[in-house]
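Risk register update: the risk of archive-format incompatibility is retired. Evidence:
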Amino acid sequence: MSTIDQSGTFNLGGRSVKRLGYGAMQLAGPGVFGPPKDHGAALAVLREAVASGVNHIDTSDFYGPHVTNQIIREALHPYRDDLVIVTKIGARRGADGSWNPAFSRAELTAAVHDNLRNLGLDVLDVVNLRIMFDVHGPAEGSIEAPLTALADLQRQGVVRHIGLSNVTSKQVAEGREITEIVCVQNQYNLAHRADDRLIEDLARDGIAYVPFFPLGGFSPLQSSTLSDVAARLDATPMQVALAWLLRRAENILLIPGTSSVGHLRENLAAAGLVLPDDAVSELNRMA
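Archived output:
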């Protein structure tokens, strides 16, 4: 058994994926805008991820824009049969690198076809609708119009499954009335645990939860606590944060990103990190 196999598997859109995947966001340039500083290194990271057993890659055509998906295609196409590529729509990039809502039916349709073209696919495995009522986090508001437009694209056969990103529990419930939701992607980590109940509700229904920013928004005290635990376990803070998430709930799928092969290997090694109960208790108190 390879290290990544120790993370276990979970069903995502009818397919079994390793619970430790890879997020491609950092393959674009600074600010997730423009090309990477080292194109060859970006290709190497993707190939190393798949060679290490990763079969779940998270991306979006608004990373770059277009850059990340084009690199994925160059590095990995034709894709392995077991590889699940999950993308996002609902935003567009301004000329200044800003993140702007793109919710109209025309914008969502164009985004799906941009993803298809740049990834070199005839159908997208999973498309997450990124809700942009507030760029910085979930904000209430009806998602019926954009989600209905995405569901229409699913009926046309260019999208297999649909997920939601940057959403509230109320929006998840609204979305599930409109179409089947196979995953939810929100910020969640040791320090930011507003979605605790949502994760448990989704787990009961077999729906994947995909947290991003595993080290995002920590206070200095929280960072110090995490570093202390990591030092005692001879691990990195990121490894400990990822291992805690894997232990937190069986429906959690991880997508840590990096542009470095060395950091990728460190992240994947988190699948084999066993957290002692006393360390888990200490980490739980960080929230």
